[in-house]
């Protein structure tokens, strides 16, 4: 069983024509784009997005990406894309679920792992910057988890 995150967000996506491949299903690489869209919304919701990270002097490259395709999405299909933050103290680990908005059927799931890297030194940090941890703790408090 996958670990559930305390902080999560859902966004709707309607599959556009340009995401379809020659088999008339969403090309597998576009799911990564859907993950990025919902991840940005999650970070905005937490109150510490990529702009904040860069202002603090860090970039957060994806160092691991895992996807599991269950069923393909199709042109104009309404999707629900969910992201849940499951780790933040030492790295950002986010779980994703892409499901059919109409039926709730699972189509794809995945996970990304990101690490903080100092812009100034290009060195990887072994713990998350305090500003990220504080933003997550504040978001947990706002939602009644702390």
List keywords for this structure.
146 residues, alpha+beta, Thiol Ester Dehydrase, Chain A, 5-stranded antiparallel β-sheet, two-stranded antiparallel ribbon, 3 helices, 7 strands
Number of domains: 1
Q: Within the largest sheet, what's the order of strands?
A: 1-4-5-6-3
Calculate the terminal CA-CA distance, rounded to whole Å.
Answer: 24 Å
Strand content: 25-35%
Roughly how much helix do the residues carry, as a percent range? Answer: 10-25%
CATH H-tier superfamily: Hotdog Thioesterase
How many H/I helical runs?
A: 3
Largest sheet: 5 strands, antiparallel
How many DSSP E strands?
7
Q: Please tell me what the overall shape is.
A: globular
**Mean pLDDT across all residues, rounded?**
95
CATH class: Alpha Beta
Level-2 CATH architecture: Roll
What name is given to the CATH topology?
Thiol Ester Dehydrase, Chain A
Helices and strands, in order, run as EHHEEEEEEH
What would you call the structural class?
Answer: alpha+beta
Kindly provide the radius of gyration, computed on alpha-carbon positions and rounded to a whole number of angstroms.
16 Å
Unreliable runs? none
Family: Belongs to the 4-hydroxybenzoyl-CoA thioesterase family.
Keywords: Hydrolase
Pfam family, one: 4HBT_2
GO molecular function: fatty acyl-CoA hydrolase activity
